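> forwarded from #structure-qc
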């Protein structure tokens, strides 16, 4: 790992590598494939960890399950990793959190990730999930030659706010209850196809269907289509 310096020169020669660059404590992933010697120069104060990607033929089989988890805000979620070595022995593993083009190593010693473990029995436990946890995750395994990677899995965090609760974005509202975050009221409101009664959203189409049924059931009722 490179130290904190003002100008960092790194020589990379004939390798494919994946890096986590830490700026103000936030790691940022960079990737480079080079067929000739390349000089990289960092002009800001950063700490960079170069991670050489191992030849996939040397990598163990790495699988993380399930591929997708959907949990409500404040609940818990967990992923389990399987590492099967066929050639090079796995040395250690780390969990990665991937948010767009930013990748960071999960610090499983934090209370947030209490219950998480590394190789040989890797497990990622995410407690009290929030919308910052609504990203992709991956298991990184180190062998003598470099680093290997699992499939990418995803955690979806669903909102729990109810009707007329204050909100900033729609994902905070309980969408299973047909709610969205209204910019006019800054609150969770019923979607346009629904109306509310006693803080519950009901389908307007259902009311219309009931009205038509009543018309049909009346003697001499007229049904207009």
């Amino acid at each position: 790992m490179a130290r904190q310096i003002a100008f960092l020169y790194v020589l990379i020669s004939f390798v494919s590598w994946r890096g986590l660059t830490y700026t103000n404590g936030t790691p940022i992933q960079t990737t480079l494939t080079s067929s000739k010697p390349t000089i990289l120069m960092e002009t800001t104060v950063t700490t960079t960890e170069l991670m050489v990607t191992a030849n996939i033929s040397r990598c163990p089989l790495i699988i993380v399950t399930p591929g997708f988890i959907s949990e409500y805000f404040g609940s818990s979620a967990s992923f389990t990793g399987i590492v099967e070595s066929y050639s090079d022995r796995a040395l250690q593993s780390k969990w990665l959190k991937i948010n767009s083009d930013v990748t960071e190593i999960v610090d499983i010693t934090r209370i947030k990730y209490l219950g998480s473990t590394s190789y040989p029995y890797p497990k990622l436990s995410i407690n009290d999930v929030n919308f910052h946890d609504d990203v992709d995750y991956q298991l990184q395994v180190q062998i003598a030659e470099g680093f290997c990677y699992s499939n990418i899995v995803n955690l979806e965090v669903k909102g729990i706010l109810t009707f007329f609760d204050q909100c900033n974005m729609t994902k905070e509202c309980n969408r299973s209850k047909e709610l969205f975050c209204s910019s006019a009221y800054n609150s969770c409101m019923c979607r346009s196809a629904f109306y509310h009664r006693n803080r519950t959203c009901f389908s307007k189409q259902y009311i219309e269907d009931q009205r038509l049924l009543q018309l049909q059931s009346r003697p001499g009722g007229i049904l207009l289509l």
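QC bot note: Residues 1-17, 21-47 have pLDDT under 50 and may be disordered. Residues 204-217 form the longest helix (14 residues).
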